[in-house]
Design a protein that fits this description.
This protein has a single domain (4-196), classed as 3-Layer(aba) Sandwich (Glutaredoxin). 34% of the residues lie in helices and 19% in strands. It contains 4 helices and 8 strands. It has a 6-stranded mixed sheet with strand order 1-8-7-4-5-6. A two-stranded antiparallel sheet has the order 2-3. Helix 2 crosses helix 4 (179-196). It is globular and about 40 Å long.
């Protein structure tokens, strides 16, 4: 059994290593209009212009409660997809803010989805209970789902992706976000979607 201290240290080391990698990629050219992961950004949330948005992968799988999930059934809603694990300290730090955003924007047809990766189901459920999270989370113990999202890093947590009502990647956060940061981005996207939908 790996201690919590060792898990936090490991998570921090990986995060620092990836931050250095983003810095080294600063002079790289992007491979396409939707390649928002190729360059680092000081902003917590990177917005993707409507003309440059690409469709999110078709997510399907089993939720922590073992029920089936299909992201396609949420088409028409703005969807916040947050990648987390019970052993990741920054994930715990941002969990209350994610729940607050979910509560505050529910009336705008905004849905929140967690993706629990590289974790134990029982530990993940304890995390959900501890932070009183009411939104569902896909269970991805092998960490396969982040590999199909080119906008984020599969090697660090947390990551957050916001999808517009058409199911396209509209905003990306490659680090912990606050309620203020995320709610502003989500509300702006919800308003944009209504205006242009």
């Amino acid at each position: 059994m790996v201690s919590t201290h060792h898990r936090v240290v490991a998570c921090t080391i990986v995060a620092v290593g990836l931050a250095a990698a983003w810095y080294l990629q600063d002079t790289a050219t992007t491979s396409g209009p939707g390649d928002v992961a190729a360059r680092p950004s000081a902003a917590a949330i990177v917005q993707v212009p409507p003309a440059s948005r690409q469709a999110a992968p078709a997510l399907t799988g089993q939720l922590l409660d073992t029920s089936a999930f299909r992201l396609a059934e949420w088409r028409g809603s703005v969807v916040v997809v947050n990648f987390w694990a019970s052993w990741c300290a920054p994930c715990g730090d941002e969990a209350p803010d994610l729940q607050a955003v979910a509560d505050a924007t529910a009336g705008l047809s905004v849905r929140m989805l967690g993706v629990n990766i590289n974790d134990d189901r029982d530990e993940a459920r304890k995390f959900v209970d501890a932070y009183h999270l009411t939104y569902p989370s896909l269970f991805d113990p092998a960490g396969e789902i982040p590999l199909i999202f080119p906008a984020i890093s599969p090697r660090t947590l947390p990551n957050t992706v916001v999808l517009d009502r058409a199911g396209n990647v509209a905003a990306v956060a490659r680090r912990k976000v606050t309620r203020t940061e995320l709610e502003a981005a989500v509300r702006a996207l919800a308003a944009e979607s209504v205006a242009t939908g």
